[in-house]
Amino acid sequence: MNSAFDSLSVCEGQSPRFERPTLTAVSAPVQSNGRGSTLEYAAVMSESANRTRIVLLPGDGIGPEIVAEARRLLESIDAFEFDQRLVGGISIDESGLALTDEVLDACRGADAVLLGAVGGPKWDSTDPGAPRPEQGLLGLRKGMGLYANLRPVKPLKALIDASPLRPEVIAGTDLLVVRELTGGIYFGAKERTADSARDDCVYTRAEVDRIARTGFEAARRRAGEAGKPHLTSVDKANVLETSRLWREVVSAVATADYPDVELDHMLVDNAAMQLVANPSHFDVVVTENMFGDILSDEAAMLTGSLGMLPSASLGADGPGLFEPVHGSAPDIAGQGVANPLATFLSTAMLLRDGLGRGEDAARVETAVEAALASGMRTPDLFTGAEGEQECGTAEISAAVLAAL
Ligand code: NAD
After folding, report:
1. pTM for the whole structure
2. How far is the CA of 62 from the centre of ligand 1 (A)?
């Protein structure tokens, strides 16, 4: 899971905020490229300038296998423009860095970014100065100004038995964890002496305000026109000063701008219990960085299948970063058996949350459900139950595309 990626220091030298460059159409005078008429060239260039540009970052391990399938999925939806780049271990091999400035710039200038996974034994090192694949992820988060991580948890009907919880407890679970990604204890000052250590946890009003709004907006969006939006804000306000500020700011945002959203505050220890005892109680959960790291992994496991979980990281403006929750699974890389469905569901989030194409997102989600309902299972999901057919990455991907 992502935990190991969250407590590491971020790549140096990258600005935390950015202005998103706009794609400009080609303007006259237009040069001929020698292969067609000037008019044809202008038409091609202007079409390309208007097309939605998606940066693909396959990364390491199974990343290239699952991102290639996601690309086919996107190609069957629309004529997107793709820009495929290196990140993680493969980028270290190529350039010595897990994320180059050039790749970061390409991501900042895109409409959305889809990432596979990074890391693997080849790049594990005990040398603290050696470049590490996960620096690529942290550099992207910081360099793209991604402060909100969204992880939906909704067990699919066909996989309800994969949950470690009893079916009657998991039934009806459909929640979203919104985690603050760039503040708190992971990014505070750190100090180590021979016999003590310190990690500072700092939050500003502005940081809490913006993530609270992400949570309230998500609650409204999920409730739709007719529903009653519900947000649970998780903190430790009985002990921590940062949590008391958190609670004060979230309440103020609710009163000022979201009176229609039902808001409750819950202590993190209680939230950890309620997630397994009564997960269907939750709709949107908003919380700070470290609590979110832990609770989102706990919530993720409610479905019981790591290969099924998507995520999105969003900033104030600029493109979002969409990626499966799982890692690069080096143990199965290159075997054609990786489960691509978490990446497909991340692609659905890219369409909905990144490009505002909710209908296309819903089509992808329905197609994933349909492929599973037909009994197809990659080995990580296969239980041998009646009606199941074990298959590889290509077969289940083809089934999803056929159902689209
Ligand atoms: P992992 O998620 O890669 O794998 C855990 C287990 O789940 C393995 O048995 C793997 O085969 C299986 N698995 C994961 N995704 C699967 C999929 N789509 N289909 C089928 N099976 C799947 O976690 P790990 O083994 O702890 O880490 C492996 C590498 O990935 C490490 O280098 C780690 O640092 C890195 N990692 C990367 C990310 C990321 O890029 N966001 C997140 C976590 C771990």
Report:
1. 0.84
2. 9
